[in-house]
UniProtKB/TrEMBL annotation:
Cell compartments where the protein resides: Cell membrane
Record's protein name: Putative manganese efflux pump MntP
HAMAP family the UniProt entry points to: MntP_pump (MF_01521)
InterPro entries: Mntp/YtaF, Put_MntP
Lineage: Bacteria, Bacillati, Bacillota, Bacilli, Bacillales
GO cellular component labels: plasma membrane
Family: Belongs to the MntP (TC 9.B.29) family.
Keyword field: Cell membrane, Ion transport, Manganese, Membrane, Transmembrane, Transmembrane helix, Transport
Role according to the record: Probably functions as a manganese efflux pump.
Topological relation to the membrane, as annotated: Multi-pass membrane protein
Amino acid sequence: MTDATLHAGQFATLLIMAVALGMDAFSLGIGIGLKGIRLRDVLRLSTIIAVFHVIMPLGGIYAGHFVSGLLGHVATMAAGVLLLLLGGHMIYSSLKGESVQSIDYRSSVGTFLFAFSVSIDSFSVGVTLGMFEADILLTVLLFGFFGGLMSVLGLLLGRRVSENLGGYGEALGGAILLIFGLLFIF
């Protein structure tokens, strides 16, 4: 394979993962949007979520580099298992109806708790990507952009549609991570 093919494949993988991780922000954004949210709050909350979608995977990538050095050749299997567990948890949570929608996003502490809660999955995926020496700048830019974009879309869409779409969005994101986990293992 040529370098261009490898870079295109890595970009496509990171793009799909960024969208999958943004589904959590999207689905929970719908729940908040259903309760009513001002446009100024949509912008504020989405910006903070985007920042967390940069910080969390960045920390995860550095942790992944460390873990990769410890695990050596077992890192690929560990990364695949981590994605399987994360994807399965996202699907389980969405089907069970668990969410953090009770957090008051209007307060500073609530905003940060909400942003942290929808970005924590990015840390785990960052650990996996760190084991594979993924492009750090491309990863954090894609994750941040799609974390912010998906939260804006969820918040705005929540103002107009039913609550059922949110759970399906998170389940879809979990299914995508499950597929990548299986690909890494096999």
